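User: I'm putting together a small comparison set for a docking exercise, and I want a reference complex before I start. The sequence is below, and the ligand is uridine-5'-diphosphate. Could you produce the 3D structure with the ligand included, as structure tokens?
Assistant: Of course. I'll restate your input first, then give the structure tokens for the complex.
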Amino acid sequence: MRVPSTALVTGGAGFLGAHLCEALVATGVRVTAVDDLSTGVPANLARLRGDDRFHFVEGDVREPLPGQPELIINLACPASPPKYQADPVRTLMTSVLGTLRCLELAEQCGAVVLQASTSEIYGDPEQHPQSESYRGAVDPWSVRACYDEGKRAAETLCADFRRTRGVDARVVRIFNTYGPGMSGGDGRVVSNFLSQASSGRPLTVYGDGKATRCFCYVDDLVAGLIQLALLPELDGPVNLGSDREMTVLELVDEVRRVMGREVPIAWMPAATDDPKRRLPDLRRAQSLIDWNPPTQLQDGLRRTLTWFEQLPTE
Ligand code: UDP
């Protein structure tokens, strides 16, 4: 699609949502953000306050959505494991009903939908790297299933609205992303480590610290999302993130390098059903949008640390 004149971003007050709203407004798009503020916070949108190209609506994505946007980006769902597990029924229903509402609005007004899916749809993967054709290993009884299965059902809704109702629904599977604007209390590993390190606390490592993840800087991820939304056509899911795989203990070393000092570890019990290894196959994104996220982990961590350091101490 060409650059849209209007966009609706659900989950617009969240970590990713707020960065995305800023980037869209900077591209000249008039943006409406909807958020129920269950995990997002208005402070994330502070830089857009007073900008007449931006409009915030406090609302629930499970209810009918406002406006006639040309592009709808659906990010509305808690994404950090402790947050999405806190009210699992609501998490699953937010994914499913929220996606349905976005697709219904798109069918009505002819919008393109970009659905934020997730690496979690691969569950605890048995294939590495995870390519888009891999079907995943999700246990529907797991404490993580409310998120994983909710996002899987959301993908199915996108596929079916494409097939049966002609909606241009696009699905991006987002891998671990970090950056300024994350909440220190959100429970994810980068935000936990940097808020702990910046306030002189030890780093909480769950289990043996040997689980792996790849960490993508938020500005790179947001740029990739916008490029995928602007492609003339996109059918089928696309992985997006970094493919620099590291263990949690290697991340501890990276945080120590950024801090320039030894930071102690507090060993904690392993998280339930924690995926052991996660690594995206990024070839599809590379061929579609020449995907090669430029931000080095040390630079991204430093910028994120600076952000945590200027926050008022709890
Ligand atoms: N983790 C950790 N300490 C923390 C938070 C997370 O060791 O304070 C581990 C977690 O068990 C997992 C990895 O870091 O192996 C990434 O967890 P996160 O919650 O950031 O995201 P996930 O990729 O699991 O959704």
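The domain at 6-181+215-242+277-294 is CATH 3.40.50.720 (Rossmann fold). Residues 81, 176, 187-189, 192, 204-206, 211, 213, 248, 271, 274 surround uridine-5'-diphosphate (CB under 6 Å).
User: Thanks, that's exactly what I needed.
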